[in-house]
Amino acid sequence: MPAAHESEMGRRHQETRVGDLPEECLAQVIALTSPRDASRCAAVSPAFRAAADSDDVWRRFLPARLELDHLVLQAPRRQQAATSRKDAYLGLCDAAGAFAGGGMKVWLEKATGARCYALSARRLSLPWDDGEFSWRWTPHPLSRFPEVAELVDCTCLDIYGTLPAAALTPGTPYAAHLVYGTSEGGHRGLSYPDQETAVAVGGRVAARHALCLRPDDAEARKFRGGGEEARRPRLREDGWWEVEMGRLGGAATTSAAGDGEEEVTASFEVLGWYPKRGLVVEAIEFRPCPPSS
């Protein structure tokens, strides 16, 4: 065998492939990616799976120590009993959410680990222009919270929720969503396309949109003029309806996170002053935008 060929074979034999690296080295590299990428790495080979599923990797994806302690204490028992960091992470990704106190639920987005929030109706500002009988607080079989707010009767309808800007994951684009339904007895005044949402950071409006909670083409024809076409809601798998209220870019969440005093506000308003009833408010959610957005 020629010496050059033997030398080439020896060189190839001495090469170290990625899969030959110690598990600790692979884990350090995978920990620099994301939960989604770590899960993909686990499918490459047994060596990658051992590294990608290790506590050293998933410890990096969990929230900070104090925040994690709070979430785990409030989480269901099945989450508290997690035997690995990956199990603990996946438990906190349950959209049912762990109570964070004061009528709010928080969970992690599975792909990125970004924080998600649901503010219950009790955490929202609701109009009381017609006195204490404008809203009725009642349990609901589909709700994650003990009570929802059912609109009995009002003329002025303006709902908003606030969250400290520092609570959002910096550098992550977010969208606010109104989660709602309508009462079994029917609704009134929710089908006109004169409804508006806005999302603001520190009082600065980042997005404003026209929408309609209960679209009705016959009602829409009563309104004339141009402008933005009203957004329409979608029916969720959990039985609630939701409509996107507006978005915040990643740059906005990064700059806002540096100011502990700023708040993010998501609001919904019906511009017309006419009787309204039958709206059931479950929550306002703040969730990361889909990757393709």
UniProtKB/TrEMBL annotation:
<dbReference type="InterPro" id="IPR001810">
    <property type="entry name" value="F-box_dom"/>
</dbReference>
<dbReference type="InterPro" id="IPR025886">
    <property type="entry name" value="PP2-like"/>
</dbReference>
<dbReference type="InterPro" id="IPR036047">
    <property type="entry name" value="F-box-like_dom_sf"/>
</dbReference>
<dbReference type="Pfam" id="PF14299">
    <property type="entry name" value="PP2"/>
</dbReference>
<dbReference type="Pfam" id="PF12937">
    <property type="entry name" value="F-box-like"/>
</dbReference>
<protein>
    <recommendedName>
        <fullName>F-box domain-containing protein</fullName>
    </recommendedName>
</protein>
<feature type="domain" description="F-box">
    <location>
        <begin position="15"/>
        <end position="61"/>
    </location>
</feature>
